[in-house]
Design a protein that fits this description.
155 residues, single chain, alpha+beta, 29% helix, 7-stranded antiparallel β-sheet
């Protein structure tokens, strides 16, 4: 069996069109009062450049340390997170497509490890961000809290 050979560093990518203005989609990720309704269950603060945060997912008994690297109001959030022996960088982009619609993109880079481990990590990341983006879309467009993230891997 031939082994998988990478020709470039892998990245994870997920995206979603949201029928809300870019500022509202941006706020959904920048303001934990909104984000806790669709992604994590707790945060030590808002996404502000230069801050270090702690996010909690109570359902899973998990947490992440987050270093906010860059924030452009209504356009971009870039942060580093994860195991700080092997952190990754996430970029959230909010691109207006109309006055009432935004294309939201999540890209994660910096994966390191064995081929099998990296493929599993990238796959989990794509699934996780896709779930979070779908849950955010339901909340912003329809006011529905899906509980999609807590239900993603039920006990």
């Amino acid at each position: 069996m031939e082994k998988l050979q990478l020709t470039r560093d892998p990245h994870a990518y997920a995206c979603m069109f949201v029928r809300r203005p870019a500022g509202e989609a941006f706020r959904a990720f920048a303001d934990p009062a909104v984000t806790t309704r669709f992604w994590y269950s707790g945060s030590s603060g808002p996404m502000v450049a230069g801050t270090e945060l702690r996010w909690e997912w109570e359902t899973y008994g998990a947490s992440a340390e987050v270093k906010v690297l860059e924030v452009e109001e209504g356009r971009l959030i870039r942060f580093e997170w994860g195991n700080y022996d092997r952190p990754t960088t996430v970029e959230l982009r909010f691109t207006p497509r109309s006055a009432e619609g935004t294309f939201v993109e999540a890209t994660e880079t910096g994966f390191r490890g064995s081929g099998d481990e990296t493929v599993r990590w990238v796959n989990d990341t794509v699934g996780g961000f896709t779930t979070a983006l779908c849950a955010m879309k339901a909340l912003l467009e329809h006011g529905i809290a899906l509980n999609a993230v807590p239900d993603h891997h039920p006990a």
